[in-house]
């Protein structure tokens, strides 16, 4: 066998916990093969470079061998080379900012102006 579906491959090399998670990522344009968005049924072969968006990080993998069945974590380096830069991997473990919104008791419901100011503040923050 020289090729396999991209969703099945990403599941097999343990990028996603379930195959449906891998399929959803492909359908959500979070998986690219050679810089082009990949549908779940797109074939992957040895030598392809996969880019997978997981949260804020862009993970990069090079296909070494095609795997059809899910494998133990110790076998993954034989099938895929992780090319992800360290600064991208650090994004997965970065602390998240927490915003606490509080209204004074008796202030009533937020007005349209309050909502717009809140949305503007949230949009200006970096994630």
What's the structural blueprint in terms of helices and strands?
Elements: E1 4-5, H1 6-12, H2 19-27, E2 31-33, E3 36-37, E4 43-44, E5 49-54, E6 57-63, H3 76-79, E7 80-82, H4 86-92, H5 112-124
Antiparallel strand pairs: 1-4, 2-3, 2-5, 5-6, 6-7
Looking at the structure, the CATH topology is Structural Genomics Hypothetical 15.5 Kd Protein In mrcA-pckA Intergenic Region, Chain A
* Helix-strand topology string: EHHEEEEEHEHH
Question: In what order do the strands lie side by side in the largest sheet?
Answer: 3-2-5-6-7
Q: Which runs of at least 5 residues are low in confidence (pLDDT < 50)?
A: none
* CATH superfamily label: RNA-binding S4 domain
Task: Work out the helicity level.
Answer: 25-40%
Overall mean pLDDT score?
Answer: 88
Short structural description:
With 127 residues, this protein is α+β, with helices and mostly antiparallel strands. The chain is 31% helix and 20% strand. It has a single domain, classed as Structural Genomics Hypothetical 15.5 Kd Protein In mrcA-pckA Intergenic Region, Chain A (Roll), CATH 3.10.290.10.
